[in-house]
Amino acid sequence: MRARLDSSLRLARVRGRLCVHFQHLAVVLCALLALPAVAVSGEESTPTAVELVNASRPTACAEEDNVYVKLIGQGVAAFRIEAHHPDYIETLSADLTAPDFAGCDMSGDPAYAFTPRTVVLYEDAEIKLIGHAFQSFWRPNVVPFRVAERTERGLHLIQVFLKQGAKATEFLVLYPADGYWRLKPLPPPHLGDSAYGSSFLIGPIADERRPLVAIEDVLFEPATRTFHLAFGSGGRGSLAIAAIRDDAAVLDVTFDPPAGSIPFAALRSMFVAPQVADTAEVRWQPGAAEPFSQVAVMDLRAERAQAVRFGRSIPSRHNTSAPDLAFHAFKILPAVAKER
Fold first, then answer.
1. Domain ranges (residues) in the chain
2. What is the pTM of this model?
3. Which tens digit of pLDDT belongs to each residue from 139-161?
């Protein structure tokens, strides 16, 4: 499901539902950890590890997000997300992105009616935002989206494009009504475009038929390329576009830590089989001086990690070019660090 408009709309309709040779991953993850620390509200923060809790379940439907890995950490207030092409990206002569509804039954999914529309929310010399309201969506929520002096309500998809001359390439999307995000690097030249695969949630996660983050309000700040979020359950967060390149897309995330054991983020994806998956393996490092561990994503249990990456080591017949997603640079506030 590509980044073009028709593909993004199709991806949204079926969303009810990482691609590395993992020896190479160790090098890449170490490089990620060497990146500058994420700032938290101007205060010095403390690196930490987080709990990975796997709530995934089997499915036969390639358009269902059955992979659900929660990230939990008391006091965690910042981290970094990166998307990287799979190691095999240069070997692909064609990309497989068509939806596969074999084994799917979505007849029971809720559908609330809306008036379809498309609006250009913001555009400058480097970036462009387009918003879409769909004919139907699984949640009735109407979320205000603000940018510059403009406010739009009831949008279901926000697309973010990088402008390069006459070309505009999509690399990030947000679904405001349920809090899902997708990210990818700029596409390799030989493919012309690349697919989204896994999604992620940021903020206090709740379950309403499926995991979600209730967003009360979104403000995009063009000068800093930052999304400011007000959460429905209280608290605020921000997501800043730190880098977008042909080898990586980088987001810096900060937020008010959720209470107790509520997840502050999650990986959402699809796994039917290694050859039919948007993510198939997970690799994590418990601590800076500890070795990396690796398992099939469905075999992951509760683990502690200072860095984690989700990917695929063999090409999938579903969203073949979709990126790996890495989560790292977890930070806690000084007050919480002193309590530990």
1. 5-100+188-339
2. 0.86
3. 999 999 999 999 999 999 999 99
